[in-house]
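For reproducibility, we list the full input for the magnesium ion complex.
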Amino acid sequence: MTKIISIANQKGGVGKTTTAVNLSSCIATIGKKVLMIDVDPQANATTGIGIEARDDGNTIYDVLILDKNMKESLRKTQIQKLDIIPSNIDLVAAELELIEFKSRESVLRRKIIDLINSLSEEERYEYVFLDCPPSLGLITVNALTAAHSVLIPVQCEYYALEGLSQLLNTIKRVKNSSNPRLSIEGYLLTMFDSRLKLANQVESELRKFFGERVFHTKIARNVKIGEAPSFGKPIIIYDPQSMGAQNYMELGKEFIRRNEAARKS
Ligand SMILES: Nc1ncnc2c1ncn2[C@@H]1O[C@H](COP(=O)(O)OP(=O)(O)O)[C@@H](O)[C@H]1O
Ligand SMILES: [Mg+2]
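The corresponding predicted structure, in tokenized form, follows.
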């Protein structure tokens, strides 16, 4: 089975794209076949993995709005087992254009199902990660409808928990309408600075509320993580020795461990 995970939080700058790029890269490096789908018009996941965000007729916009075959839009990345469906700024228009579609919430889901059905056993992806835009609009709702689970990055700062209830309401709404199977993959503490009392408070609050749903692995604030995207490289290639690379590799292992344990039970 292919598991589809949306990385979502309507707050901007909390580490969604960084997590999409680096978790995908680490899991692929561990040896699982992974697809990352960039569904943010800002296309930071596309450029962050080293692919130019241009309108070449093979972007997620073409897939969603012009009914382009998703398989034809697959691109290889510098990581052997990681492919991507790129985005570009055209996707801004999709937020409005999708309104006209019938079953407008499940356009992306149908395209992903078609893709999965068209792949051979060898081509099959084990995990598909969707990098969501910073809003709770129709594109994010499409991503939540397409997914088995949601991974929620939480930046350890003031008001970190503010807005989470809005996201959880949207998730609940999607569960009650277009996607009853949707679950929470986990909450991920990002840009963590253990020297800050506030960061530690956010952590203990999150663990108190959400218990085991919070990943044990925390992503520390690390300058190398901030630099890597401008070189179009995931952190494990840009600086494999960095704390950031170690954190995301640890997260990749935890993610796989949890999923393989859940599959057996
Ligand atoms: N652990 C980290 N340490 C340092 N900088 C980070 C870290 N995670 C993300 N960043 C930087 O913070 C900014 C916002 O992260 P990003 O992943 O783009 O957030 P989002 O996709 O949620 O808007 C980016 O410039 C990114 O490089
Ligand atoms: Mg982003």
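The chain has eleven helices and seven strands. Strands lie at 3-7, 34-38, 75-76, 82-85, 127-131, 149-155, 183-190. Both points were considered when choosing residues for closer inspection.
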